[in-house]
Amino acid sequence: MLEIFGREWRMAGAGGGAAGLDARPWDIANEALAFLLEIAALGFLGWWGFSAGHEGVPRILLGVGTPSLAILVWGLFAAPRARWRPRLALVLVVKALVLGGGAAALYAVGHPVAAGVVAVVTAVNTAVAEYFRASPSGVRSPDLS
Hints:
The protein is mostly helical. It has one domain. The protein has helices spanning about 25-50, 55-75, 90-110, 110-135, and strands spanning about 1-5, 5-10. A hairpin with a 2-residue loop joins β1 and β2 (about 5-10). α1 (about 25-50) crosses α3 and α2 packs antiparallel against α3 (about 90-110). The protein is globular. InterPro entries: DUF2568 (IPR021214). Keywords: Membrane, Transmembrane, Transmembrane helix.
């Protein structure tokens, strides 16, 4: 349960049923970070597309088309309510392509250090999220002792 502005929040999760599953604040924070990384990857892909060195229509097509294609593929295979529910391996491949593509795009526009930071944070965030999603209860408390 998370309390924000005096109100208690419950998040539904795997196996939580209609009543939902209590989510720990760090789990909510990790999911929020995942969402921000996804949005940032789309922004980086668009930035790369618009600065890819082409003029006119190709620049617009790359700037709009690259993140649009990423959104389409993500929505079909990797989103929580994806149209198709592929095996975890394919979901991770799609995430690697989109999120890794975002980091590569950031590198390509001239920000190698930021791209490295984004890549590492994305990898750790995805690993943590998948680890806890794979646990039988949907949320597992790490042994921090």
